[in-house]
Design a protein that fits this description.
With 218 residues, the chain is an alpha+beta fold. It has one domain. It has four helices and eleven strands. The chain has a three-stranded antiparallel beta sheet, covered by helices on one side. Strands 1-2 form a two-stranded antiparallel ribbon. Strand 1 and strand 2 form a beta hairpin.
């Protein structure tokens, strides 16, 4: 079984940037992108999160294995530039000057792509074994006694897997990965991952991977 990108050395993560248009996605041209009523939400501590993955069909997004049925369950997968509603060359160049403190990206109005600090606030509030507490109670493969999660906060994280810029997909059922707005360098941005064999929430890096999105209320 292929490992998640969280466990792959950074040198292996140097994917070529995607061949999309360099224009910024027009997220206001489709009401779906603005309709938070389409999604369950949950308040955890002082934060209000989507309680399911974004499923906004915008150019550059993908369904796992190119199967629309997977989008119905896990939402769509996005590379970082698409998630952030930035030009596609931001997957391979520094775009810090275009990133806002609460960066909406392709989230509905009044919501934003969570920052690295936002993710830390969540995991600090949840505390020990945050991955287990945030995972959905069903849908995860079991591993040596670790089976799904407790979902005691209603976050309902599902293992939607990941894709890459070459068209491959991996880890459905065993791993879930969600973008943050934090840019690390020209080729790297931060994301959070949960893995079926772990009870923690881990941090990974990349831009051209295709991951899920959980929007956070402003």
């Amino acid at each position: 079984m292929a490992k998640s990108p969280r466990f792959v050395p950074l040198a292996v993560m140097l994917y070529a940037s995607l061949l999309f248009s360099c224009s910024t996605p027009d997220i206001d041209s489709n009401d779906e992108g603005d309709n938070i009523a389409n999604y369950r939400t949950v308040k955890i501590g002082t934060q209000t999160w989507m309680a399911e993955n974004l499923n906004y069909n915008i150019s550059g997004s993908k369904c796992y294995d190119d199967d629309e049925a997977n989008c119905d369950i896990y939402g769509r997968l996005y590379d970082w530039a698409t998630a952030m509603a930035l030009p596609s060359n931001c997957n391979s160049s520094i775009c810090a000057s275009q990133i806002l403190e609460r960066h909406r990206g392709i989230c509905p109005k009044g919501w934003h792509i969570p920052s690295d600090d936002d993710w830390r606030v969540l995991t600090k509030f949840v505390g020990k074994n945050a991955g287990t507490q945030l995972k959905a109670t069903n849908g995860w493969n079991s591993y040596e006694g670790i089976s799904s999660g407790d979902d005691i906060h209603g976050f309902a994280a599902l293992p939607g897997g990941w894709g890459d810029s070459e068209g491959s997909f991996n880890s459905i059922g065993v791993g879930g990965y969600w973008w943050s707005s934090l840019e690390i360098s020209d080729n790297y941005a931060s994301y959070r991952g949960m893995f079926y064999a772990n009870e923690t929430v881990n941090e990974g890096y990349g831009k051209s991977f295709f991951h899920s999105i959980r929007c956070l209320q402003d």
